[in-house]
Amino acid sequence: QVQMVESGGGLVQAGESLRLSCTVSGLNFDDYAMGWFRQTPGKKREGVGCIKWSGVSTYYADSVKGRFTISRDSAKSTLYLQMNNLRPEDTAMYYCAAGLVYGRSWAESLDAWGQGTQVTVSS
């Protein structure tokens, strides 16, 4: 059974940083591109970025490029999202997920995801 548990969300001010973590079990990481998407009520899911579990390649949405970094710790089966210079428009529920496709179409290829963690950025 696949389990993904996110943590690390919270309320911060614009310009501050947060690091989200996602502990994953029940997946063969080599079969997936792991990543993060975010969603706000009434809006479409937005892929933040993804990583090949080998760690060689990462992909980011233009909206977060240069501010967010995805990494993973294979030994801990944990995925991270380091978010710097946060903006109010980054406010959303953030989910870690496993996708079948790496890159721009990752968010449309999701096979499993967690319950999410809320990130709120005040101005």
Oligomer: single chain
Q: How big a fraction of the residues is strand? A: over 45%
Biggest sheet: strands, sense, closure? Answer: 7 strands, mixed
Derived structural class? mainly beta
**Series of secondary-structure elements, N-terminal to C-terminal:** EEEEEEEEEEE
Query: Which segments are poorly predicted (pLDDT under 50) over 5 or more consecutive residues?
Result: none
Report the span from N to C terminus: 40 Å
Task: Work out the radius of gyration.
Answer: 13 Å
Secondary structure tally: strands: 11
- Name the helicity range: under 10%
Continuous helix count:
0
**Average pLDDT taken over every residue:** 95
Overall geometric form: globular
Concise synopsis of the structure shown:
With 123 residues, this protein is an all-beta fold. The chain has strands spanning 3-7, 10-13, 18-25, 33-39, 46-52, 58-60, 68-73, 78-83, 92-99, 110-113, 117-122.
Topology, please?
Blueprint: E1 3-7, E2 10-13, E3 18-25, E4 33-39, E5 46-52, E6 58-60, E7 68-73, E8 78-83, E9 92-99, E10 110-113, E11 117-122
Parallel strand pairs: 2-11
Antiparallel strand pairs: 1-3, 3-8, 4-5, 4-9, 5-6, 7-8, 9-10, 9-11
